[in-house]
Input
Amino acid sequence: MSVQFRSTRQHLLRSSLLVGALAGLATGLLPTGPAGAAPSRADLVVAASVDTVEVPASGGWSTLTLDVRNSGTKASQDVTVAFTLPAGAWFSSDGFVIPPSWSCDLQGTATCVHAPLAAGEIADTLNLPFGLPPGTAGDAVTVTATAKTGMESSTANNIGQASVRYIPSTMDLEFVPAATSQQLLPNEYVNVSTSLRNSGNSPSGEVTVTIPVPAGMQGSEMSSEGWDCAFGDGVADGRTGWRCIHSPLWPGETSEQLYYGGILTSTTVGDVVTMEATAATTLPETTLENNTARHTVTVEQGAIVRGTVWVDGNNNRVWDTCEVGAPVGYEGIYRIEVATQPGSSGSGGLTTINPDGTFTAYVRPGTYRVQFHVYDPHEFIDSIDSDLIYYWNETGGANYGHTDWVTVATGDEVTLDAGVRSRWIQTC
Ligand SMILES: [Ca+2]
Ligand SMILES: [Ca+2]
Ligand SMILES: [Ca+2]
Output
């Protein structure tokens, strides 16, 4: 009778243990069987996952997340988790934090140790980045974590595994933005800014961008952080332009902005000037179709402000037909600005000063005045052939004068002159 009782009891015990173990596996929370019915034991349950389940065939990084809990009814002893990485893989040595409750030796034995876990206690989650060597696209590799402690009700749930699959490597540089445009006046500055992005899953090689200076434009040296640029003749594939180098771009990385530009010269209204930047790298790309950035400048019509700084050679305060323009430079016309009236929306390009004392500025509709700076031996004069409403001849010879405000519309051409005399008077 006692034998029968025992066997029935053992049968019941096994059943409840089995149910308990299954429930424990399913929820990870339930104790294995009624407390009074089974020997009280610890039961570690391990769960492992990876945050990146696919890496390129060129190799890559993932992070192992490990959770260990004691689902048993009794405290465990010390917990040791041993990791097995795929062949050639390695744990990162920095860039992550081990919770203080764990003590890990990832570079040596590849184990982490935790103090005993009370019944029901969940250990702090471990997040361990690891690197994978190059592999074959389509292959999967597995990371395994195995926990060990003293006597447990089950060790079947002590192993956590997660897989990472190799996918084909891709690398693709593309300009962001790839197409820009603007409308400018003749003699205006062209400023272009773009960046380069690696939209593949593998690093690029060193990057080179070449930008020839197009016809109708004069380029100038510019610097861009993160880029090493040279400007000059024969650098942009043999042509005058920019050649800029950038270190390899990581998957998903966008470079710093790349700046280049210059001033429109020898263009006329309606001209279209296109700047083309071309990127290349030392490794094969998915496509080369997106390796060009185009900046299109359409030369638009504005108004023209022009005039002459003329020298009253015979000192009669009249611009006689024989009298010519002042020289340009430190003893003549030093600077001419076409200034925008404060609050006016006008804007324009550089004022070109010619050796014969004439000047030209292309401006948008707006209100402007011309500001002249001439140097000794030249100084401003009163004359009916001068449009200055104000001038000041300094002792020392840095002389300044300006015209009244003039409002111009698209297509207008206005002429504003300034009369000067030279202390070295030459009659004509
Ligand atoms: Ca266990
Ligand atoms: Ca590309
Ligand atoms: Ca005269």
Notes: The radius of gyration is 40 Å. The chain has four domains: 1-36, 39-167, 173-299, 303-422. The first strand starts at residue 44 and ends at 50.
